Amino acid sequence: MDLQLKGARAIVTGGSGGIGLAVARGLLAEGARVALVARNTQRLRDAARRLGTADLLPISTDTTDDTAVRAMVDAVVAEWGGVDVLVNAAATPSGGAPAALADLTDREVAADFDTKVLGYLRCARAVAPHMVRQGAGRIVNVSGLNARRTGSMSGTIRNVAVAALTANLADELGPHGVSATVVHPGPVEPKPPEVRAVLAETTSLRRLVTAEEVADVVVFLCSPRVAAVTGDGISVAGGNRGAVHY
């Protein structure tokens, strides 16, 4: 199937590694041009070197800074004339045992929220006028399976908030031809073998998904062919064992 992404102008935040980098690689393989966005300049350079293509525009940006986000989008528009796709994946991944209620600090929750929820909002707010003007656009927010289960107080709060943000974007921008979806990955390989074995038992497939498998779904959602899907969340986690969502 032709995803009709050839020549598309895409922004991928969190693009220096993990799911963001895999998404960038997938979009490039479909013929899209990709603005690769990350906070760490050296990691961004290394990622751009690995991708090695003229269709790549690396831009070092901290998505917790609204002025920096707007400057990044302006740079993409100046280079390519517009934005067709935004993939928000810039967030600190969950890792280790989540803090118990008594140990969870305001600062931790606020930092998670500022980076993931407000960071995604800042990027969507900056690209929306360009997408609305051209009457088309795709926004895909990478959230997490904590939106659908307990176990990490801060993780659940931020990921549920991303889902709520996505639904609101879909309703407001939909009449202008812009759709928004949210993807909920579970834990992604690589993990230490002992951790991987435990986490794998929580999935229907009894294995962890890879960043590339998540990216395949995200790239598909970036396609104009999927414009009828908006506002909803899609789990890409190998199944959330024991849970029913409808």
UniProtKB/TrEMBL annotation:
EC number: 1.1.1.-
Any Pfam family matching the protein: adh_short_C2
Entries under InterPro entries matching the protein: NAD(P)-bd_dom_sf (IPR036291), SDR_fam (IPR002347)
Keyword terms: Oxidoreductase
Top-level taxon of the source organism: Bacteria
GO molecular function, one term: oxidoreductase activity
Top EC group: oxidoreductase
Gene3D superfamilies, alphabetized: NAD(P)-binding Rossmann-like Domain
Family in the record: Belongs to the short-chain dehydrogenases/reductases (SDR) family.
Protein name, UniProt field: SDR family NAD(P)-dependent oxidoreductase
Species this chain originates from: Pseudonocardia lutea
